[in-house]
Write a structure and sequence with these properties.
The complex is a heterodimer of chains A (331) and B (554). Chain A is built from 10 helices and 6 strands, in the order H-E-H-E-H-E-E-H-E-H-H-E-H-H-H-H. Chain A is α+β, with helices and mostly antiparallel strands. In chain B, helix 1 packs antiparallel against helix 14. Classes of the chains: A alpha+beta (331), B alpha+beta (554).
Chain lengths: 331, 554
């Protein structure tokens, strides 16, 4: 039987200040960049130029994509259109496609010369080109954020009923943290924000919340089980107890997303990268953000048994041996 | 626990599997659509594919629409198109799960792409769920009827004879001949016209009047069905069009009425200005009135539309109001009995409820701010490109194999049980998607990946708990029981909060956000069933077969 991290007794909470520092170092510059430059929205959001191409042979979307890539037209959308040798290319030159006459013509010319290089000048014909509007309104992004905001409120209420409002607040703040780190991540790599990436961000919200609640569930149980321990010890104990599960679950999901990053190709890569980062940040925040935040909230606004007030035990005394403490009968 | 015995649990699992297979079986359904050419309602059989792949994964059909300017220019077509975009989007995507592309191209063009469709006729019928609807008052002053004799005279002068088949035939033949024969015709025709004038004059039936029979209301005329093409060609002549009074237009009806043995089609003379268009219409429902047993269509207008309608109907009490959808008068124009505001109803008398339902469908369809015509249609490949999809599938297969390997290597026999449950999970999820009529797109697949992760996680939580209990020295049977019991609160709380999040995303979000949320909700539901219920059943069977098991393969 393989057992990973069974009976682990790491002092996770001790590293909370390092974690805060690390995450701030990631978020703040990324967010500053985001505020200055915004995000690189995909052609689905900005619109661009539609170029309809007829080739003499059925070359396939792959050849056209590589021809455009070679000319530096990166984020084009290429679709077979009608017959096997007709294609619809949606492209833009800059990251913000102003759909003016001039830019439309410029883009069409760029596609033309790219295809002339990649396919040969007499291998294709440009049937027509015109400006296209965005496929999805910008309001989608606003609506997605609005949806996330409302879902936070619902989560707060649900966790306040099932746990305590302090747990809910810590979980929601940890998820918010993940959204910020993900935006920073997208900004650092200058990934193209397409609909699929929006999907990945939403996945991240679900995943992170899910993970945090699993650890909090164990905290809730241990708080009932061990009456003597303070919150610092309980948190460490709970994280350690759920560690095998965390490693296995995140290991399997990470395996699939890494497979996507490596094998799924250029078009799907931004999506796969965001998903991989999502698992990383979701796991990180459950342990290093949500748990210490819960302790902080308990200290600021102590609950009934005021164990949070005793929470900041000096580092020297460390965490208790898991399982070692004599379980106090609950009643 | 509700299902204590293995037998009842297996029955439930079996029923779910059978249900899933049934939901995933392609089937035919009958749908009521409007025929594009005749404007009448008809039933069509639609092959219902259980799960449609989205435009990004599979492609579909591409239709380009433009504002119809053939009947006079539309002043601001860019504005009309942008309003049409909103209407088309909401009407063809009523449940928000089809995820079509509705995109403005150029200045006055609207591109609609529908996923999964390979049949242009069917795609068009979906588009025709949106149409241009207007309410117009019929020709109450009989302005058109009064000019019919004049039209007859003009036609006679132009050499059109009283239509029997021969006359109609002659006219067509004359047009077919080239420039040489027109001289000959010109020489002959006036002479014949004179002869006709001499002999028949006013009392004799004219070319047009012999085709038209006064209908049951002012402005309604009946034309024998077989003469409809003749009447159409007469009315299209420039000398006739010139004579049609200002402010009056002629519109064909959709209904064919039988008088005696002969079928007749209705032709309506209506005002050229609509009192209201479908853009203002918000809702229309059909019902049968309990008291009078009449078929009734209730409709609701927007607030501003209601004010306008109230003013107009106030001016036209006891007039007939033609309901015109894409240039065809639908049914018989109802009479306006009194002022109608925001809420109105159309009584269809003793007609069957089906007619009322058709009318309601027509009203709901007609919300375009201007008539649109399809200018281009073709099929379209997946927007992700076939190359990307092939790579994506390969990567997905590798990912699944990795998950299976990790589970089986780490949890051994229990891992095999989990993998078996996971295949059931996939069947349940796909069945759920089929029941919701969802279209699976890449963001939807992201939701699916997440829910697979959550399904695996539920199993991991249970297995880790069982291991903990075993480590505490508990017997295998107790350890399994306790493991499931203790893992339950974590699984339920985490999944319920994720479902709540997804539910909010569904309610607030649009398009792909909704697709993601639906897949996630269905996936989590399926994962709860398989992880908690099915895996538990597997354990029960296993433990029953080996009651003396000392160590558990977990």
């Amino acid at each position: 039987m393989i057992r990973l991290f069974a009976n682990a007794a790491y002092d996770f909470i001790r590293w909370r200040r390092w974690a805060y520092g690390l995450t701030a170092a990631l978020i703040i510059p990324g967010f500053a960049l985001f505020l200055v430059h915004g995000l690189n929205y995909s052609i689905e959001f900005t619109g661009g130029t539609l170029v309809q191409v007829r080739t003499t042979q059925a070359v396939g979307t792959e050849r056209i994509r590589s021809a455009l890539d070679a000319a530096g037209i990166r984020d084009a959308e290429i679709q077979q259109f009608g017959g096997a040798n007709e294609y619809k290319v949606q492209a833009r030159l800059g990251p913000t496609a102003a759909t003016t006459e001039v830019s439309t013509q410029a883009t069409a010319q760029a596609v033309d010369s790219a295809l002339a290089h990649g396919l040969g000048p007499d291998q294709y014909k440009i049937v027509r080109y015109e400006a296209v509007g965005p496929k999805v309104g910008r309001e989608l992004q606003g609506k997605a954020f609005l949806a996330i905001f409302f879902s936070f409120i619902v989560t707060l209420i649900y966790l306040a009923i099932r746990f305590e409002w302090r747990f809910g607040l810590a979980a929601v703040l940890a998820t918010l943290h993940d959204i910020l780190t993900t935006i920073a991540f997208v900004r650092y790599l200058n990934l193209e924000v397409s609909l699929v990436v929006v999907g990945a961000v939403l996945t991240m919200v679900g995943y992170s919340l899910n993970d945090t609640i699993i650890i909090f569930d164990r905290v809730r149980e241990n708080l009932r089980k061990f009456r003597r321990q303070n919150l610092y010890e309980i948190l460490n104990l709970s994280i350690n107890e759920t560690l095998p599960r965390s490693v296995l679950t995140h290991g399997t999901t990470m395996a699939t997303t890494v497979a996507l990053v490596l094998l799924a190709g250029e078009v799907l890569r931004p999506f796969a990268l965001v998903m991989t980062f999502a698992i990383f940040t979701g796991t990180f925040s459950s342990i290093y953000i949500a748990a210490p935040l819960l302790m902080y909230i308990e200290k600021r606004w102590p609950g009934q048994d005021a164990r949070g007030a005793r929470a900041f035990r000096p580092a020297g005394t460390a965490a208790p041996e898991p399982r070692a403490p004599q379980p106090q009968p609950t009643r | 626990m509700l299902f204590r015995t293995i037998r009842s649990r297996l029955l439930v699992t079996g029923a779910l599997v059978v249900g899933s297979v049934f939901a995933l079986k392609p089937s035919n359904t009958v749908q009521r659509v409007r025929d594009a050419t005749t404007g009448r309602m008809k039933d069509t059989t639609v092959r219902r594919v259980p799960i449609n792949l989205g435009l990004d994964l599979q492609g579909g059909i591409h239709l380009a629409l433009e504002v119809d300017q053939s009947k006079g220019p539309v002043p601001d077509c860019a504005d009309a198109i942008s309003r049409a975009e909103r209407v088309v989007r909401s009407r063809i995507d009523q449940f928000g799960t089809t995820e079509p592309v509705v995109q403005i191209v150029g200045r006055c063009r609207l591109v609609v792409e529908l996923p999964g469709e390979k049949d242009p006729a069917r795609a068009k019928s979906i588009i025709q769920r949106t149409a241009f609807l207007e309410f117009r008052i019929t020709d109450m002053q009989n302005l058109f009827r009064d000019v019919i004799p004049e039209i007859d005279r003009a036609l006679r002068e132009a050499g059109v004879r009283v239509p029997g088949q021969a006359a109609a035939g002659a006219a067509n033949v004359a047009q077919l001949f080239g420039a040489d024969t027109t001289k000959a015709k010109k020489g002959k025709a006036p002479a014949k016209g004179k002869v006709a004038k001499d002999t028949t004059d006013l009392n004799a039936p004219g070319a047009l009047s012999s085709l038209l029979f006064q209908g049951s209301m002012p402005g309604e005329f009946l034309v024998p069905e077989e003469q409809v093409p003749v009447a159409e060609s007469l009315l299209a002549r420039s000398e006739v069009r010139r004579l049609i009074p200002r402010g009056i237009e002629l519109k064909w009806g959709t209904e064919v009425a039988s008088r005696g043995a002969r079928p007749y089609r209705a032709l309506y003379a209506v005002q050229d200005r609509p009192i209201i268009t479908g853009e203002e219409l918000e809702k229309a429902t059909a019902r049968r009135d309990q008291v009078t047993n009449q078929s009734v269509v209730d409709f609701v207008l927007s607030r501003s539309g209601g004010r306008k309608f109230e003013r107009e109907t106030g001016r036209h009490i006891h007039d007939y109001m033609a309901i015109i959808l894409d240039d065809r008068v639908q049914g018989q124009p109802p009479i306006i009995n009194g002022q109608i505001g925001q809420h109105g109803q159309i009584e269809l008398g003793s007609k069957p409820l089906q007619d009322a339902q058709d009318l309601a469908l027509v009203l709901r369809a007609g919300a375009l701010p201007a008539p649109l015509t399809i200018v281009d249609e073709s099929t379209i490949g997946p927007s992700l490109g076939r190359d990307s999809i092939r790579d994506g599938i390969r990567a997905g297969v590798v990912g699944v194999v990795l998950v299976v390997l990790i589970m089986v290597v780490y949890y051994r026999v229990s891992g095999v049980l989990a993998v078996a449950a996971l295949t059931l999970y996939i069947a349940f999820t796909l069945a759920g998607l089929a029941l919701f009529g969802s279209t699976l797109t890449l963001p939807g697949l992201a939701g699916l990946v997440l829910s697979v992760g959550i399904a695996v996680d539920a199993n991991v939580l249970i297995f880790e708990r069982i291991r903990e209990e075993l480590q505490h020295g508990k017997l295998v049977r107790t350890a399994v029981d306790e493991g499931f019991k203790h893992a339950m609160s974590a699984i339920i709380d985490s999944n319920v909060s994720t479902v709540l999040t997804a539910g909010i995303l569904y309610l607030v979000g649009t398009g792909p956000v909704r697709g993601f949320a639906i897949t996630l909700i269905i996936g989590i539901g399926a994962s709860m069933i398989t992880a908690i219920f099915v895996v538990r059943t597997f354990y029960m069977i296993w433990l029953q077969r080996r009651p003396d098991m000392a160590t558990l393969s977990v």
